[in-house]
Every structure is written in structure tokens, then in C-alpha cells.
Input
Amino acid sequence: MSLESFAKDLEKIVGPENVLSNESDRHAYSYDSAVLEPKMPAMAVLPKRTEQLSDIIALCSRAGMPITVRGSGTNLSGGTVPDSEESVVIVTQALNNILEINEEDMYAVVEPGVVTAYFANEVAKRGLFYPPDPGSQAVSTLGGNIAENAGGLRGLKYGVTKDYLMGVEFFDASGALIKGGSRTVKCVTGYNLPGLICASEGTLGIISKAILKLIPPPKASRAMMAVFNGIDAAASSVAGIIAAHILPCTLEIMDSVTISLVEECEHIGLPKNAGAILLIELDGHPAQVAEDSETVESVLRKNGASEVAVAKNEQDKDKIWEARRKSLPALARSRPTIVLEDATVPRSKIPAMVSTIGEIAKKYDLLIGTFGHAGDGNLHPSILCDKRNSDEFRRVELAIDELFTRTVEMGGTLSGEHGIGTAKAKWLKMETNAATISFSKKLRRALDPKGLFNPTKITGTAI
Output
């Protein structure tokens, strides 16, 4: 089948205005937020109804066209970068209906293109709470969050996307509609298909609907910022808070590089001379929050905090979290290229990981700004560089190699929330083994015999 004929058939399904094949449109769907070479797809298609997904997949299957699914493209490991110039990108942003918010049973039913922050706000209007809050929540979509098992600032206490996925509907490689999970709290009807599809990075099916768990919001919260002369003391405080059996809603770290660049860009009032800061929020019953706050402040002081500032009101609290959410944009603006990683270690290893990042920066003569979810061991060492400088980028690649090696040696993982995609596929064997990768390929081959769904993602080579 010729591309022209294929495009005409797609137009019959979604309308001519929703099939994009000119060069400028194709370029817009050739990359994601990772530092990877873009790949131009053959075309992009924008379905307006979830039922159209079935016909699009069936058509691609008949024509042997590889499929890449894309929400907002905010992922950071290459998951929405097309595999080849023959790929079709299916864009789900227009599938953005909240179908139900059930206040009595505390769940919601959504289409994949619903924006995360919009959904959370709509839920909050009804007195309920959806905790997952990835840094890209203002633009990322719930379908993408499920495909990548997105985390966020509140992951330490509340968990990540998989912990809120009760049910899912998706289309398989033949275009058949598959249903798993339910609206009930308990469900063991058949295989755990929601668990299978979550974090599958578009390799097993295309999500058309999801059932998401909601919870009651906390009755009280308290946010604070602790200032340290060095990042080692801040890291030790993180370990101390967890060892005290306190589970903050959020426990974030920013190093001196990140603090300086955020303050330079945003003028929030951060202590530019600090070696590191911790941003902490406790929530729950008012009495528990008050008691835990005293314990946390004691741990911070014991570990060398030079200042502990407690938010007096919502405006103060918003300023604290604005500082954290501005970390990535501020770092990204400082140099032409930012390589953002999310190597994750057991929480007790945070001090060792912080030390390792410093050693690697010095060894390879690189500027690394570190921030992230220190409370759950998920740091974001961000290498600031210029990819056009071949010598510098060679050192970047060596540094990443060593970072992942040291992470796995500490009992950690290649990715806490960004996924494997193509960016980290070459290190997968180091954390797992050859048999695991072979098993994954067999699973994919059974569900997608032609290997059309995101063919080279996760396992590194087409199945």
C-alpha cells in the first residue's frame, strides 16, 4: 500500500483535517523531551473519538506501519520518538473527556488525553484528591502518565500512577477492545491488565479509557524549607527523617547549582549562598502534623540546618513549591543542552548517591545540578552541557555510564519515573538479565506479532 493510499484511508476514518503529513507537522511529532535525535514519522493522526483508535490500528496492521502513541510528548526517555520514517504517530490529546467523577465511590473515569492538572483541579472541586503530580502536570496527559507510570512530588507518601489505576480499556494490536480492572475496590477477575498496561510505554496497546482511584484530601498540612551549608548534610537529614518513621507528603532536595539558577531566573527569594535546601510538606490530621513537624525540625537542626522556615500561609507554601517546580526550566535555560536523569536508590543510600554525583561531576569536569524527590530516593542529576561540543558530550556519556553503574551497585534502579524508552535500553541488562529481556520480547511478540507498537522501546531492538 502506498503512503498516499494509506493516508486516504486514514482520512476516511478521522477526516482529512486530522491526518498530518507535511514536513512541518511531521517534525512537531519527531521528538520528545529527552536528548535524542528526532525521527520524522510518515504522518500523524489525531483521532477525535476513542472508537476511531480501533480502525486506525487495524489499518496500520494491514499496512505494516509501526505505531507510536503520543499525548503531550513530555516524556523523558524517547517513548514518543517514532521508530522510523514509516511510523504513524497517533496523538491522543483530543480524547480529553472526563466521563465520570463518582464522589460516593471515589473514582473517576477518563479518556487518555485529559491533562493531569486539569483533572486534579476538577476532582478537588468535588472535595476529593488525586495525588500523582508529575512535574509536567500542567501539560502532561493521564494516558501518558499511565504509559510511563508517572510519579511526582507526592510519591513518597501517596505513591505513583499505578497505585491509582483501578481499571483500563485499551485497543490491542489487532484493534480489538480489551478491558481490565473495575470500579470496585477489589477485583481479581482475570489477569491484572491495568498492572500490565501501566509503565508499558506504548508497547502493548493504546489506552482509550481509565478508571482512577480518588481519596479524601488531608485535613491539614504544613510546609517548610530547611537551609544547609552543604548537600551532604541535607542528604543526611533526609535519611534521618525517614529513620524517625516520619513520612512527609513531600521531601524534595535542591543543590547549590539549582538554587542559584532558579533564583536568578525567578527571584523567589531563595538563599543563593546555601549549599542545599530541603523542601518538606507534612499532611494529615492536624495534631499529627503538628507533632511530626516538631520531630522533623529537630532532625533538621541535628543534621546541621542553619535555618528552618515554616510557611505561615498558603502564599508562603506556594512560594516554596514554586521554587521546586521551577528547577527544571531554570536549569534547562542555562545551557543549550540538559541531560536529565532519574537514577533511583534505596532511601538509605541518598547520602551515598549525592556523594557519587559530586564525584562524577568532578571526574568528568561537568556542571551537574541536582534536585528531586529525595524522600523516595529518586534524584534528578541534570547535566548542563552543549551537545554540539563533541568532547564535552563524550564526557557526558561516560558520566551517565558511571552514574547508572554506581546506581545499580547501590541496589538502585535505572529509572524511578521516566521509563526506559530508547534512552536507557542499552543499560537494561545491567539491572535485569538476558533472560528477563528475552521474556519481555516473547510477551510482546505474543500480544503484537507484527511488532508494530513502539517496536524498539524498552527492549532496545524490534521484537
The radius of gyration is 22 Å. Residues 68 and 152 are 24 Å apart (CA to CA). The longest helix spans residues 390-409. The chain has a mean pLDDT of 96.
